[in-house]
Write a structure and sequence with these properties.
About 45% of the residues lie in helices and about 20% in strands. It has helices spanning about 5-20, 30-35, 55-65, 95-120, 145-150, 170-175, 180-190, 205-210, 225-235, 250-255, 265-270; strands at about 40-45, 50, 70-75, 80, 85-95, 130-135, 165-170, 195-200, 215-220, 240-245, 260-265, 275-285. The chain has 2 domains: about 5-120 and about 270-285, Quinolinate phosphoribosyl transferase, N-terminal domain (Aldehyde Oxidoreductase, domain 3, Alpha-Beta Complex); about 120-270, TIM Barrel (Alpha-Beta Barrel), CATH 3.20.20.70. Helix 7 (about 180-190) packs parallel to helix 8. Helix 10 (about 250-255) links the parallel strand 10 and strand 11 (about 260-265). The strands form 3 sheets. A 6-stranded parallel beta sheet has the order 6-11-10-9-8-7. Strands 3-5-1-12 form a 4-stranded antiparallel beta sheet, covered by helices on one side. Strands 2-4 form a two-stranded antiparallel ribbon. It starts with a helix and ends with a strand.
């Protein structure tokens, strides 16, 4: 993701939109105290332990405001930082630093928070074959940032969007008329290289999905006992994903099942931000 082509195609417009949201006509506060260009420097300081994600987005916010601004980091995405450590410095026109500060921090705090929370759960899965997946429960227009943060924290991305894969959920099954019908329709319509995943809420639905030839079966909101019965029914004839209100607090009950994947919307919709500040701004001669 961190390359010039991806930046230009997917990220710049989103960042510009965020900047326009914050500066509709002018930054009145900054223009009031800074009437002309003045070179300055500020420090990016970590205020809690965590895993960094989104440093390149932080830098890009300022580059889009002033191409001559310079941002230097002492860390890279995916590295752990401690409370009180200086993550980097930013040098350039004080007006650009002040105007971009909140937008840049919003991205970095949010992405680092997701990476930190994801990492704390991924560590619980170490030693097992189970992979931790995110979902599409992301903030509108921020999915590319949030899913990147999940990967940075040690998780894996489920499908990126509706064009990315076949996942037949309860309402798809209802529209199709049943599990068997939904799987058969998907197999007929989707390109043969696409796997067919279907969401099942009961052991009976799992049996139908196996018989219909689903490639991946999601066990959704089942008890541990029900999931074990479903796993026995599947008998290695499909990959298995567990889902449904999975959080850091309850994920351990799923680990012993030995499923292929555990997906959690909490990675993106419930991760707290990481506390990071831009401090000590001062003018340079």
């Amino acid at each position: 993701m961190n390359n010039n082509i991806t930046m230009t195609l997917n990220v710049d417009e989103l960042i510009l939109g965020a900047l326009r949201e914050d500066i509709s006509s002018e930054d009145v506060s900054t223009n009031a105290v800074m009437r002309k260009a003045q070179k300055g420097e500020a420090q990016l300081i970590c205020k809690q332990d965590g895993v960094l994600a989104g440093l390149f987005v932080f830098r890009r916010v300022f580059e889009l405001l002033d191409e001559d601004i310079e941002v230097k980091f002492s860390y890279e995405d995916g590295q752990t930082v401690k409370n009180g450590e200086i993550i980097g410095t930013i040098t350039g026109d004080i007006r650009a630093i002040l105007s971009g500060e909140r937008t840049a921090l919003n991205y970095l705090q949010r992405m680092s928070g997701i990476a930190t929370y994801t990492n704390s759960i991924a560590k619980l899965l170490e030693g097992s074959k189970t992979k931790l997946l995110d979902t599409r429960k992301t903030t509108p227009n921020n999915r590319i940032f949030e899913k990147y943060a999940v990967k940075t924290g040690g998780g894996y991305n489920h499908r990126y969007n509706l064009s990315d894969g076949v996942l037949l959920k309860d309402n798809h099954i209802g529209a199709a008329g049943g599990v068997k019908e939904a799987v058969e329709m998907a197999k007929e319509y989707a390109p043969f290289v696409r796997k067919i995943e279907i969401e099942c809420e009961t052991v009976e639905m799992v049996q139908e999905a196996v018989e219909a030839g689903a490639d991946i079966i999601m066990l959704d909101n089942m008890s541990v006992e029900e999931m074990q019965k479903a796993i026995d029914v599947i008998a290695n004839r499909a990959e298995i994903e567990c889902s449904g209100n999975v959080t850091k607090e309850n994920i351990e009950r799923y680990i012993s099942l030995g499923v292929d994947y555990i997906s959690s919307g909490a990675l993106t919709h419930s991760a707290p931000i990481m506390d990071i500040s831009l401090k000590n701004l001062h003018a340079l001669n």
